[in-house]
Please model this.
Amino acid sequence: MSDKKPVSRIWELDALRGLCILFMMVIHLFFDLEYFAGLELGLPEWFDLVQQYGHIFFVLISGICATLASRSFQRGIYVFGCGLLISYVTLFAEVFFQLNGIRIWFGILHLLGVCMMLYPLFKKLPHWALAVIGLCFVVLGFWMDTIRVDVIWLFPIGLRSGTVFTGSDFFPLFPGFGWFLIGAALGKSVYRKKLSLLPKVRSSALPLRFLSFVGKHSLIIYLVHQPVLYAITFLFIM
Model:
């Protein structure tokens, strides 16, 4: 019989993940209002930066959490399967409802699923090695984004042909897995004791409890939020 105690959830990680999910929902809502409802929202420049790079925080948090939980590979299969479900649904919507440009071939769930499946190969490395390897992935990822290749099926790792649409949400392994490994390095160092860094903060306060709840259920919220946003958007169209 195992005498290991399960690791309790660290509230600030759940809250930060919840905050990321809420920002993502706002970004998707604004995209839907502009794309489907034809509204000109005149969004500021900083919003474009959040839209383009905000996912990094979500991937970093996932990397941290990978060091605190077990069964990373099994969870990765499940998350990647959810990503495939989104691929099929968006492809169906594009083909049968002529909603061009919403297809997702390798989005955030595909990325996180593969990262979780790959992490067991790296989990025994020290935190500094994870950080170095992660940084290499990030640098190579930004370089890959500047080139195009003749092979059309290398886009999941970050090499695009320029002739195939890679999806409205595209997050390849280079640099995505690099951010995940950097998050794992933080998990092995900053969270090496597997305890909250903010134990004196009253996490039971309503705003923090709400963010933590959203973070704990981030996957299901991600899966159902877009149909809800579509409904809101079509209210503007009608």
Remarks:
- The chain has one domain: 11-187+203-237.
